[in-house]
């Protein structure tokens, strides 16, 4: 992440400075320092956009998804450090008292445990975030750092994921308000729109830098391609950096509006292009794989299936239930697959045959022995993922049966139209199973 930021700032500073010089009569010129600030602001990738895209595609736990989120975390840390340093304020002597937060961590975790799962949970999150912000401000430290520190302290809590999901809608709302505030600073004219489109021409370069660095670190071509593609947008954090530069008199309001327009356009670009990322990889995979290194990382070595007859994709509640039901048959060899390494490790420790894999990875299917597999069950929440995986299986020469789940009746028909052999309506089948189990209990002889 640091290498990408440094390379990006070096390359883009000159480009921004040149573009500003050509357009100086329309939007005002830039100093070299201001050009560096804009390049730095554009170096960030959007946490909101990337997480949203990965969650919608069900890829937040995949290899490239975890890589992208890790890069975003590092970028957010860089942004907060910059915001703290840019204010030029020295902490007061009372800042040493912040060390008391370490022994107070169990008490904070206890508060979260007592907040339940309803409205109190997001309210507790707000109190901790805003409290951390104001606590650091009291000792003359930028409040953003306080909010970040509190977030790090809560990350290891068992309810951290639930808390993050409960706050996500508020985060989206605040982001809309922030964009609205930026928009009120100046009315965009045609010159600003053109310049923002020029900035968007840097998006392929941003993706290319990420791809080059990832492949240099011996990541697989597909992982590098997907991660660099989803990280190729500009960030709302860049707007925060730009807004701070405007408040310090280092940047004109017009440039902040231009950055905001470029950020918005980049969101649209990522959402549209990433939707077709897997089909694009299938088309250009030979060209992409030429950049791979000969030696692979341990995590990128393809797993093996030993005489598997049934394969369950997705070890969530439905997938794990299907896996256990098949395993109870006794005379069949059942294997599972999931992109979450921690979940796979846990199931392996319980004695189950589960491998790490992304079902949409065509290279994975090309390297798996599927000759003995009779049935593949797609226990996935997204029907688009199921359709893509069915296509990958067909391309890999798989001739067995494929079953999938759906939540709505129209999804059932769509899956059947894409050659899925059997589709189970999740809610209908769950109700049927519940009724059958209940009737069996009623009909069972009493002791």
From TrEMBL:
It comes from the Bacteria. Residues 310-425 form the RCK N-terminal domain. Its main location: membrane. PANTHER family: CATION_PROTON ANTIPORTER YBAL-RELATED, SODIUM/HYDROGEN EXCHANGER FAMILY/TRKA DOMAIN PROTEIN. Keywords: Antiport, Ion transport, Membrane, Transmembrane, Transmembrane helix, Transport. It comes from Alteromonas australica. The keyword Metal-binding does not apply. Pfam families: Na_H_Exchanger, TrkA_N. GO terms for biological process: potassium ion transport; proton transmembrane transport. GO terms for molecular function: antiporter activity. Belongs to the monovalent cation:proton antiporter 2 (CPA2) transporter (TC 2.A.37) family. It is found in: Membrane. This is Potassium transporter Kef. The lineage of its organism: Bacteria, Pseudomonadati, Pseudomonadota, Gammaproteobacteria, Alteromonadales. The keyword Plastid does not apply. The chain crosses the membrane at residues 6-23, 35-54, 66-86, 93-112, 193-217, 224-248, 254-274. Residues 7-270 form the Cation/H+ exchanger transmembrane domain. It is a multi-pass membrane protein. One of its GO terms (cellular component) is membrane. InterPro entries: Cation/H_exchanger_TM, Na+/solute_symporter_sf, NAD(P)-bd_dom_sf, RCK_N.
């Amino acid at each position: 992440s640091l290498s990408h930021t440094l390379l990006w700032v070096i390359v883009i500073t000159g480009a921004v400075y040149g573009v500003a010089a050509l357009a100086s009569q329309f939007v005002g010129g830039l100093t070299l320092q201001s050009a560096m600030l804009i390049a730095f602001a554009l170096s960030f990738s959007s946490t909101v956009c990337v997480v949203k895209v990965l969650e919608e595609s069900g890829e937040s736990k995949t290899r490239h998804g975890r890589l992208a989120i890790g890069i975003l975390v590092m970028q957010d840390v860089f942004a907060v450090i910059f915001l703290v340093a840019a204010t030029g304020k020295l902490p007061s002597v009372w800042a040493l008292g912040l060390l008391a937060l370490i022994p107070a961590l169990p008490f904070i975790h206890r508060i979260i445990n007592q907040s339940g799962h309803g409205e109190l949970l997001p309210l507790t999150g707000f109190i901790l975030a805003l409290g951390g912000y104001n606590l650091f401000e009291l000792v003359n430290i930028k409040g953003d750092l306080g909010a970040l520190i509190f977030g790090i302290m809560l990350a290891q809590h068992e309810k951290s994921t639930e808390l993050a999901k409960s706050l996500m809608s508020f985060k989206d709302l605040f982001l809309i308000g922030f964009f609205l505030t930026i928009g009120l600073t100046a009315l965009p004219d045609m010159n600003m729109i053109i310049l923002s489109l020029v900035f968007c021409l840097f998006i392929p370069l941003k993706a290319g830098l990420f791809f080059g660095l990832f492949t240099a670190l011996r990541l697989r071509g597909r992982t590098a391609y997907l991660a660099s593609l989803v990280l190729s947008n500009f960030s709302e954090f860049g707007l925060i950096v730009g807004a701070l530069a405007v408040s310090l008199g280092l940047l004109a309001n017009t440039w902040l509006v231009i950055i905001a327009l470029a950020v918005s356009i980049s969101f649209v670009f990522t959402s549209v292009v990433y939707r077709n990322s897997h089909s694009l990889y299938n088309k250009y995979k030979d060209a992409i794989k030429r950049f791979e290194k000969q030696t692979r990382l341990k995590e990128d070595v393809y797993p093996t299936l030993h005489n598997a007859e049934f394969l369950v994709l997705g070890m969530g509640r439905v997938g794990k239930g299907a896996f256990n039901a098949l395993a109870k048959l006794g005379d069949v060899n059942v294997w599972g697959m999931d992109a979450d390494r921690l979940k796979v490790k846990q199931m392996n420790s319980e004695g189950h045959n589960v491998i790490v894999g992304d079902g949409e990875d065509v290279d994975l299917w090309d390297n798996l022995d599927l000759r003995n597999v009779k049935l593949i069950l797609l226990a996935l929440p997204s029907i688009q993922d199921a359709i893509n995986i069915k296509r990958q299986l067909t391309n890999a020469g798989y001739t067995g049966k494929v079953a999938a789940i759906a939540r709505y009746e129209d999804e059932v028909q769509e899956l059947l139209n894409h050659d899925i052999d059997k589709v189970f309506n999740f809610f209908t089948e769950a109700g049927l199973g519940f009724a059958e189990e209940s009737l069996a209990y009623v009909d069972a002889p009493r002791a």
